[in-house]
Here is the input.
Amino acid sequence: MTNMAVRMGTCTYLRLFLVPLLVYCLSLGNTPVDCAQNYKDALAKSILFFEGQRSGRLPVAQRVTWRSHSGLRDGSLAGVSLYGGYYDAGDNVKFNFPMAFTTTMLSWGVLEFGGKMGPELNNAKAAIQWATNYFYKCATATPGKLYVGVGDPNADHRCWERPEDMDTPRTVYSVSPSNPGSDVAAETAAALAAASMVFRSSDRKYAYMLLETAKKVMQFAIQYRGAYSDSLGSAVCPFYCSYSGYKDELLWGAIWLYKATKHSYYLNFINSLGANDATDIFSWDNKFAGAHVLLSRYALLNKDKNFDPYKQAAENFMCRILPNSPSSSTKYTPGGLLYKLSGSNLQYVTSISYLLTTYGKYMAVSKHTFNCGSVVVTPLMLKRLARRQINYILGENPMKMSYMVGYGANYPKRIHHRASSLPSLAKQPQQIGCSDGTQTYYHSSNPNPNILIGAIVGGPDQNDAYSDDRTDFSHSEPATYINAAIVGTLASFV
Here is the structure.
């Protein structure tokens, strides 16, 4: 920066670079100092979080050192080995449906913005591989079955204990031709296919293994139709029911297989599903908006008009999100946070912000704009809205609180997270029982003894208020899919 200022002249430099930044910050209603978030630090922490969610035998290089091995016998009740993977949120259950979405989003973030991740690229790839190693076992352990979760969620949610102490049933759940799960199977296929592209240049053998497995799992999803909620009932509902059905996962999975293989079979299947599903949300359950943005890349960057209907669907989605659009169906808090639902709202903020950022990238490269009624939408408009949302999460909000644990000076200290809220094995090697954990730690007003760095909680309410209460899980619980969606966006800002 100093050399540039010398070459250009200090006044010229200030006029060309700092003044526009000042105008931009003020346009968001912030002071210039508030606008300067450390995106590189936030990116590193957002990825580090996943090490705190690991299940299985932890590696020597594990950086979250207050965690220990757990779930080493997962799968044994079904006679298979299914250790590994991630605990989805603040509990000790491995739900493969949101875990697969998490993996797909991490992979998409690397594919789009990995070049800006610097040293964090390897950490992001390690986070992806921790999941794909597990999914490979789930897909290949027993012919004709896809394992989709470990741990009785009803028993687990009645208990407050460290994953290292788990004594609730580690029930194994699966889908099969007679008990189908097109949604969880297609999402698993998407995760494997997307990850195969991440590893293609660094480990071709591993990438090939993932892609071949993804093809088989996707074929299973297509051939044996049905929602996994119908097959598994209370094992996944109401926790991760497939509320939107499985058509969106079939579309999403087929797109990732098409991107990975370029095979016309998947393109024909995509076109048979069409682009007629309007939505104003994007999440682990509803993938339509993400699917449309993915396909719009071919229309914008490849100039392939066959993909124009998907581009139009993506732009209709953007028009439902933008606050100044006449067709907007999205609420915003008084402090400017996109607000969709009361339960873990930041999951929608991070996922939708990623779509804004990515579609804005496609628009900028192709020099494209579109209209929401009389409003002309530019790439900068989408990026500014995404940046405003991310800055809000990082502390530019009425509470002056960062909703990413460990980022900034003021962040949630009493998150709804078992491992974080209980003493580590190093501090207390004796087992902490289910009821003891509930009485002594869950209801305690003390801050969590372990800091789950990088964890993004569910976030504030519709009035920008946050109580930092461990028992208020809808606002204080972190989740893998909240973090997965922010990684790529943070990298784009770096």
In short: The first strand starts at residue 94 and ends at 95.
